[in-house]
């Protein structure tokens, strides 16, 4: 018997009472001011939310936030401040040394300031390898909770996707919080 | 209503005054109370040590002693919780359907939920820190456990609000274990002692003169620490405060 | 009557400063967790749902795993099944050899600890690199984790600084956590870029879509899988959740419980491998299906490894992860150890005052403390009960079953109050180590009642 079959046989042999799947009824929290709460929670997670003013150019804001940045990666047409298109690279390792990456988020989750990023770049490493990540997000695209979030992703197709809440972090040295363990040290969500 | 007073072994031996205060208090609030004579132990120490079956005869004995009472009421949350939670399955093995588990109450729970006195003559002009004991909180639900997201309540605090002159506090780690745990205290003496020391200091940081609670066992453990280190705080069972002046 | 836990705990407590730091720091995490749980009015409902979903999924593992496998294969993953640790390790080695891999970059996985995979692979010449910072620190110090979420919680920054100076050439004496973390970032970046194969654990496997979900704060799992051509994800079979809607319940509870964050920085969903790459999923039993046959202990399979039972446990906080003999410490570890091998791991059962804080904190409502109580009842049957405890329990029973004898004993008990200290407080009296004994009353309540003194 294959391991697969013997494991399944063992499960069947040992399973006693078969419990019902509960009805997932839940009165989940809602937030009165989604945008304000999202920004506040994001700050708590070490990120920064910036609301674009009417008529303000995204590129100006990025330049203002990262005046020192030399290598700016983006495959988005509107990001004219990008110095290269990461999708044109033949090896994802060449992404190393990127100062800022600019990507587009699908929607945000207010309760935890996570942004859903289904892979829309050639190499998903882009989301993690640059020192700073700028996520463009339509500010009308905010859901209250993860429950709501998964109802949205259920109808999406993606090969890889990540809910990202703020920068990479660790507290593995004496519980002291440090940003930029491996991934971005800074995350800015630009709300359009 | 006929109430049988349940006095656990260590209260019988070490803190009989807690039994006396319980009796007086129940009498005062107009309850018909009696003490079935020659009580010993509910069996919890053996069971927590891993010898639950050794509690069976004691459980049967308690069933016999309290069979003619409407309520069993005792001044020890942990022992009450043991009867309530564990006597049923212990007795099931002896083909006996446990009756006590359905009618047993910790005395605070009984006063708070059943008798509901609107006033007490007690005066206790002191600062006290409530010891929310593990089994009182997490088995008998005497207060809201700090782990749960439910509205705050404390039956002990409610009862103490009937006492004149008292100032009530709670420690920062509001219901962390004091480290008694029955035989845990002697099987893991170092950890248990450390827990006891930390707990007493947490109570002391409130500025209280007394640590009070519904469990003499926890109070006994903390008293051991206090006496060893000669700390400026005392322990007192909550019924002794509620019965003050009776 | 000392157990191995008692002895190791006493050793831990000798360094009072470290013990106090450990206790305080983990309590702080518990406090953060409380703040998070109180921020959601539906918290208790979420726990209830999580528990019920797990009871459902763990009692339908056969159908859910088959559904998961079917969908994962349709997504282009290669699914393996491992009965035990040995088979798991062989599968990993086989994949590595197929790709002539010499090095493996991995993110944190308690399952690979359970399988002793790193030692096995290294003995076969594979360079295994842990990429979670805590795990990397421990790997370079040749130590095991002492906590499942904060693996290096017992290590001081000075020790880390010394190790990193030796291993990565950091400045001597620089103990700044930011400096050290960023130095490790730089060092590990090279490992990420040049690894042959990446390995991750699995926090959740979604049956209805065939995808796996990995949660990290560092982003090391995602960084690891971004460059090599092969990704191996390994999962205990209880990681299965029926669908995305159910997953939403767990991702709301996991980090709030474990670290007091609203969510981990990264909740990564791996569904299909990128073109030209391989995605392997290993489903591991290693004793889990046996637990299904133990109704008293089946809820341990609910565990989502958040680690909060350790943070809340007053014994764990004051005795440290190494005082337990099973590789997972704390309340869940006591139980999982007993399920693995009760004869071997019974020493941990003493590490519990039955305060039941763990059962109340657990996001998936495992009756952790109650199960420890039940394990204690089994110790005598397997010959692992403490002799002294047995003698005491039987002695007490003998006394308590005989009220006449009990009353007589109480009459003479006050004599003990007046014994010279050296007779009472000697090495035999464990209570007396830090506490005075209670003084017996001159008259017991039974006596007072009989003499009509109670009125």
Jot down its keywords.
heterotrimer; B: 246 residues; alpha/beta; Rossmann fold; 2 domains; 4-stranded parallel β-sheet; 13 helices; globular; C: 455 residues; 3 domains; 6-stranded parallel β-sheet; 4-stranded mixed β-sheet; 24 helices; 10 strands
Provide the fold topology:
The complex is a heterotrimer of chains A (192), B (246) and C (455).
Chain A: H1 3-14, H2 34-44, E1 48-51, H3 58-65, E2 72-74, E3 100-104, E4 107-109, E5 114-118, H4 126-129, E6 132-137, E7 142-143, H5 146-153, E8 160-164, E9 169-170, E10 178-179, E11 186-191
Parallel strand pairs in A: 1-11, 2-3, 3-6, 4-7, 6-11
Antiparallel strand pairs in A: 4-5, 5-8, 9-10
Chain B: E1 2-5, H1 9-13, H2 16-28, E2 32-34, H3 44-48, H4 56-65, E3 71-74, H5 77-92, H6 100-103, E4 104-106, H7 107-115, E5 127-131, H8 134-138, H9 155-160, E6 167-169, H10 184-187, H11 189-204, E7 210-213, H12 216-229, E8 234-237, H13 238-242
Helix pairs in contact in B: 11-12
Chain C: H1 4-14, H2 16-38, H3 43-58, H4 61-74, E1 78-82, H5 85-98, E2 103-106, H6 110-114, H7 117-123, E3 127-130, H8 133-141, H9 157-168, H10 177-194, E4 197-200, E5 204-206, E6 211-216, H11 220-224, E7 230-236, E8 240-241, H12 244-258, E9 266-270, E10 278-284, H13 288-291, H14 308-312, H15 314-319, H16 330-340, H17 342-345, H18 357-361, H19 368-379, H20 387-400, H21 403-412, H22 414-417, H23 421-424, H24 445-450
Parallel strand pairs in C: 1-10, 2-3, 2-4, 4-7, 5-8, 7-10
Antiparallel strand pairs in C: 5-6, 6-9
């Amino acid at each position: 018997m294959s391991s697969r079959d013997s494991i399944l046989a063992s499960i069947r042999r040992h399973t006693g009472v078969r419990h019902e799947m509960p009805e997932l009824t839940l009165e989940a929290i809602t937030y009165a001011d989604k945008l304000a709460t999202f920004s506040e929670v994001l700050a708590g997670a070490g990120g920064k939310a910036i609301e674009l003013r009417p008529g303000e150019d995204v590129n100006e804001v990025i330049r203002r936030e990262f005046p020192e940045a030399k290598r700016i990666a983006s495959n988005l047409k509107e990001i004219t401040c990008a110095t290269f298109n990461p999708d044109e690279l033949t090896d994802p390792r060449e992404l190393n040394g990127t100062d800022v990456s600019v990507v587009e988020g699908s929607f945000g989750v207010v309760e935890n300031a996570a942004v859903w990023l289904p892979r829309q770049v050639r190499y998903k490493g882009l989301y993690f390898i640059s020192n700073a990540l700028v996520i463009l997000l339509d500010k009308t695209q905010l859901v209250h909770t993860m429950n709501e979030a998964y109802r949205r992703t259920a109808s999406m197709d993606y090969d890889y996707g990540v809910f990202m809440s703020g920068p990479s972090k660790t507290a593995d040295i004496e519980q002291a919080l440090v940003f930029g363990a491996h991934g971005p040290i800074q995350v800015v969500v630009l709300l359009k | 209503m006929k109430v049988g007073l349940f006095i656990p072994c260590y209260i019988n031996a070490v803190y009989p005054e807690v039994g006396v205060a319980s009796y007086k208090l129940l009498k005062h609030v107009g309850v018909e109370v009696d003490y079935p004579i020659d009580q010993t132990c509910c069996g919890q120490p053996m069971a927590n040590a891993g010898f639950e079956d050794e509690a069976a005869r004691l459980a049967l004995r308690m069933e016999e002693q309290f069979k003619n009472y409407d309520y069993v009421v005792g001044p020890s949350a942990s022992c009450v919780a043991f009867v309530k939670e564990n006597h049923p399955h212990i007795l099931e093995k002896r083909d006996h359907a446990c009756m006590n588990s359905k009618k047993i109450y910790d005395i605070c729970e009984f006063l708070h939920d059943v008798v509901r006195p609107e006033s007490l003559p007690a005066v206790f002009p002191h600062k006290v820190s409530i010891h929310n004991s593990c089994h009182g909180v997490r088995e008998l639900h005497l207060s809201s456990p700090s782990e749960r997201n439910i509205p705050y309540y404390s039956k002990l605090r409610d009862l103490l609000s009937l006492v004149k002159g008292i100032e009530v506090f709670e420690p920062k780690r509001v219901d962390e274990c004091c480290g008694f745990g029955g035989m845990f205290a002697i099987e893991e003496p170092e950890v248990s002692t450390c827990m006891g020391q930390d707990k007493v200091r947490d109570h002391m940081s409130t500025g209280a003169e007394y640590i009070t609670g519904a469990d003499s066992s926890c109070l006994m453990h903390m008293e051991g620490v206090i006496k060893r280190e000669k700390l400026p705080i005392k322990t007192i069972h909550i019924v002794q405060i509620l019965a003050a002046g009776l | 009557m000392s157990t191995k836990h008692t002895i190791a705990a006493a050793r831990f407590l000798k360094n009072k400063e470290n013990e106090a730091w450990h206790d305080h720091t983990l309590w702080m995490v518990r406090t953060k967790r409380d703040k998070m749980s109180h921020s959601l009015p539906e918290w208790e409902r979420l726990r209830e749902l999580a528990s019920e979903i797990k009871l459902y999924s763990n009692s339908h593992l056969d159908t859910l795993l088959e559904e998961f496998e079917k969908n994962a294969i349709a997504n282009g993953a290669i699914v393996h099944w491992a009965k035990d640790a040995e088979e798991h390790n062989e599968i990993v080695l086989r994949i590595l050899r197929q790709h002539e891999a010499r090095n493996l970059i991995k993110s944190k996985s308690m399952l690979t600890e359970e399988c002793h995979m790193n030692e096995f692979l290294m003995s076969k010449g594979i360079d295994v690199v842990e990429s979670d910072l805590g795990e990397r620190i421990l790997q370079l110090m040749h130590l095991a984790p002492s906590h499942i979420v904060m693996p290096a919680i017992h290590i001081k920054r000075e020790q880390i600084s010394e190790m990193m100076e030796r291993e990565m050439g950091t400045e001597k004496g620089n103990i700044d956590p930011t400096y050290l973390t960023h130095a490790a970032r730089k060092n590990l970046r090279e490992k990420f870029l040049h690894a042959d194969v990446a390995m991750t654990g699995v926090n959740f496997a979604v049956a209805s879509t065939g995808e796996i979900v990995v949660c990290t704060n560092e982003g090391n799992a995602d960084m690891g899988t971004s460059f090599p051509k092969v990704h191996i994800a390994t999962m205990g079979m209880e990681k299965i959740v029926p669908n995305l809607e159910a997953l939403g319940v767990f991702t709301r509870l996991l980090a709030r419980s474990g670290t007091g964050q609203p969510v981990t920085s990264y909740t990564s969903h791996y569904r299909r491998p990128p073109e030209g790459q391989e995605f392997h999923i290993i489903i591991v039993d290693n004793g889990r299906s046996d637990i299904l046959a133990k109704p008293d202990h089946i809820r341990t399979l609910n565990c989502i490894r958040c680690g909060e039972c350790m943070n809340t446990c007053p014994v764990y906080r004051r005795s440290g992860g190494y005082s337990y003999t099973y590789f997972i410490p704390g309340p869940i570890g006591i139980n999982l150890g007993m399920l693995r091998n009760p004869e071997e791991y019974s020493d941990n059962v003493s590490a519990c005052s039955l305060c039941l804080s763990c059962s109340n904190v657990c996001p998936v409502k495992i009756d952790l403390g109650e199960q420890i109580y039940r394990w204690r009842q089994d110790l005598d049957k397997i010959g692992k009960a403490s002799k002294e405890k047995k003698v005491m329990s039987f002695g007490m029973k003998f006394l308590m079953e005989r009220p006449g004898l009990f009353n007589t004993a109480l009459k003479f008990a006050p004599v003990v109050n007046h014994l010279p200290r050296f007779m009472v407080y000697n090495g035999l009296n464990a209570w007396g180590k830090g506490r005075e004994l209670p003084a017996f009353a001159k008259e017991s309540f039974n006596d007072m009642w009989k003499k009509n003194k109670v009125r």
